[in-house]
């Protein structure tokens, strides 16, 4: 009897604590039939939130499976482009680090993109590079004017437009032409498998990141240092492009592979050289025109008699 009373007392304490936590819950008596396997021991009232029924969860899963598959959104909708910007900060930083530290045998597309290319990083890298180019190009003239007052400076806002158009056209049109050429070569030689257009654009966009610190370092007014920083940045950027494209073009003929990689390096070098010569061109000096010096006129002397007689006789 003592054991039965103690067991009943423990059950009463459990029921009391349960009712204190969830007032709307109703306990099941010991004499009630055992609940079915698909239900929990405590039933939840209309306003309770304790222990959802397993049967409702199973029905919800079945309903989700039976729903018809939604068609992919059209390219004219925002949801279509949303997946291209679905990246976090750690992924973007990892891809930037991969573009700054190219290593033989490490494919940027397979190692860092992992079949999930994005447009978020390339878009903001191009925007930042265009803005930094325009600002540093104006700052170069401002700093030079402080050193030499004869230099004339006027704000050159058009450089923002020129930099934006140049960078974005390069980051989109060159990958588009490269992707189209590789697709054409895929039809000629079946073993050539190009990257997708989005992967090619992503590779070019991240390869331009190294030019941002290079442009900032070009503010140092030492010509040989500027060319050294430019050569180093160009070497890192082109090395990343060549190492990424080599697994695709190595199956092609040697002539086509060499010509394609040489064109990629040449276009990259022309971009860096054009930015250096246009935004950091030799400073225009304002030539001060000296005032015209007025020389006193010499007093007129009468002609000599001999000259007068010769003029009369003639």
Automatic annotation (TrEMBL):
Location in the cell: Golgi apparatus membrane; Golgi apparatus, cis-Golgi network membrane; Golgi apparatus, trans-Golgi network membrane; Late endosome membrane
InterPro entries assigned to the protein according to its UniProt record, in alphabetical order: Yip1_dom, Yip5/YIPF1/YIPF2
Keywords noted in UniProt: Membrane, Transmembrane, Transmembrane helix
Pfam family name, one: Yip1
Domain Yip1: 100-272
Domain of life, source organism: Eukaryota
Membrane-spanning residues: 119-142, 162-182, 203-221, 227-248, 255-279
Location of region: Disordered: 18-69, 291-314
Mode of membrane association: Multi-pass membrane protein
Entry keyword Repeat: no
GO molecular function ontology, one term from the record: small GTPase binding
Gene Ontology cellular component terms for the protein in this record: Golgi medial cisterna; Golgi membrane; Golgi trans cisterna; late endosome membrane; trans-Golgi network; transport vesicle
Entry annotated with the keyword Transmembrane helix: yes
One GO term (biological process): vesicle-mediated transport
Biased composition (Low complexity): 25-44
Family: Belongs to the YIP1 family.
Protein's name in the database: Protein YIPF
Species for this entry: Cavia porcellus
């Amino acid at each position: 009897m003592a054991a039965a009373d103690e067991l009943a007392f423990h059950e009463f304490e459990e029921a009391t604590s349960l009712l204190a936590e969830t007032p709307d819950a109703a306990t099941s008596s010991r004499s009630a039939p055992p609940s079915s396997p698909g239900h929990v021991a405590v039933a939840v009232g209309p306003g309770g939130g304790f222990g959802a029924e397993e049967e409702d969860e199973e029905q919800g899963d079945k309903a989700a499976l039976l729903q018809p598959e939604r068609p992919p959104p059209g390219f004219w909708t925002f949801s279509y482009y949303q997946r291209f910007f679905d990246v976090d900060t750690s992924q973007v930083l990892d891809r930037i680090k991969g573009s700054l530290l190219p290593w033989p045998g490490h494919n940027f597309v397979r190692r860092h993109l992992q079949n999930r290319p994005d447009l978020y990083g390339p878009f903001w890298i191009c925007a930042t590079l265009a803005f930094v180019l325009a600002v540093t190009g104006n700052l170069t003239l401002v700093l030079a004017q402080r050193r030499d007052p004869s230099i004339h400076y006027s704000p050159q806002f058009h450089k923002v437009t020129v930099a934006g158009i140049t960078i974005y056209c390069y980051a989109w049109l060159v990958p588009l032409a490269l992707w189209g050429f590789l697709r054409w070569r895929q039809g000629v030689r079946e073993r050539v498998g190009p990257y997708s257009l989005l992967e090619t654009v992503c590779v070019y966009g991240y390869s331009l990141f190294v030019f941002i610190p290079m442009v900032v370092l070009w503010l140092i007014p030492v010509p040989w240092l500027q060319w050294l920083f430019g050569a180093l940045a160009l070497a890192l950027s082109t090395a990343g492009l060549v190492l990424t494209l080599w697994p695709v073009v190595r199956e092609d003929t040697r002539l086509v592979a060499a010509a394609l990689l040489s064109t990629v390096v040449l276009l990259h070098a022309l971009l860096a050289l054009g930015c250096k010569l246009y935004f950091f061109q030799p400073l225009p000096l304002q030539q001060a025109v000296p005032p015209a010096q007025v020389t006193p006129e010499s007093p007129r002397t009468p002609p000599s008699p001999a000259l007068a007689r010769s003029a009369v006789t003639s």
